# Entry
Amino acid sequence: MKPAAFVYHAPRTLDAALALLAEVAPDDGRILAGGQSLVPAMAFRLARPTHLVDINGVAGLDRLAVDGDALSVGALVRHAAFHKADPAHGVLGRLLADVVHNIAHYPIRTRGTMCGSLAHSDPASEWCLTVATLGGEMVARTAKGARRIAAADYFQSIMTTALEADELLAEVRLPMLSEDTKFGFYEFNRRAGDFAIGAALVAYRIVNGKIAEARVGLGGIEGTPRRSAEAEAALNGQAPTAEAFKAAAQAASGNVDPIEDAQTPADYRRELAGTVVFRALERAAT
Amino acid sequence: MSETVAITLKINGQKHAVSVEPRRTLVDVIRDDCGKTGTHIGCEHGVCGACTIIVDGEPMRSCLMFAVQADGCDIRTVEGLAKDGKLNPVQRAFMDNHGLQCGFCTPGFLMLATCTLERDPHIADEDLMEVISSNICRCTGYQGIVKAVRQAAAEMRGEAQEDRK
# Structure
């Protein structure tokens, strides 16, 4: 349970961090931010990076601000920054405050970062589900420049993203939500703070009494979080009734390709997909 | 062995100049190099909370931080809670309410509760319970711990305490 040896770097500027990353990435060098997933993986020797570039001392990466039509979340913004909804972040702030309490435990949330969760990309990650559902955008930086990656292109398979080895996930941009957006999050696990066995995040607006712009995201069910087009189609144009929610839950459940583990067979997660979608929709409606 | 790095850990106000491999976790260095064995190591992967300490005012699972990252930081461990032979309110409340049996998880709970209540003794009970759910205890069934933390919160808010026999 002791991590393997590595060389430690603690740059003070973003440029220095990116230059270091460019140098050590081909040699399995990695970024260290909150370390709440990477360090356990190293303790188990599931990860054996040869170099760690610690960005905790890099100035400017803790920026959290509304930037045009998006909330910009820098690489060092800790989960705990979302514990209390910032009124300036509107509905999105309330959504993030609702979701964040499901992430691990308090001392993990004061250290771990949203961007770190996205870079790690565990299938059960609440933030990955949030970004996939809302259509967030990842800003990946190298020493040579930056590119933006849409959520739909970002999550590739279990713990695999579109990030290249020499790219730092410097920022994630979450779209601001209109004030009439209704949202609901529901996560199922056996103990508070555990990894989700399944989770759903839903958001929609009511236009003339009918659901519009429905977003239904599933996390922990498949290898990557994603929206359920079938569930969304079942909701759009319908009144927000239990019947409509049930139909959406069935549509979600019937169109998933669940992951399996020793405790949880695929059929269990398939059924759970419907349950979490239904409960998230119920929460959105209340 | 890889190259060592010279760092200074400030633990409960006392400076410890040590030379450590970057792969060494903070808890290992606090215990083995600085001789402060009050902080316990449980799971070594951030699940149990036994190694919780306070680093620059935040609760930290010291098995999930490398010692090199804590160079120059203000570190508080269980050894620093009692002052002049007097237990702090959280420690006293754990005694009063059977908040411990074997004592293995206790330093982590004490540091977590102390950090939380020093920051905000008026914390809502629901939020306090969420914080306390972070750590694992295999002896008490938690009820004694919950009672202890609530008593400490009341005391730190300045509310009158019943006489303790």
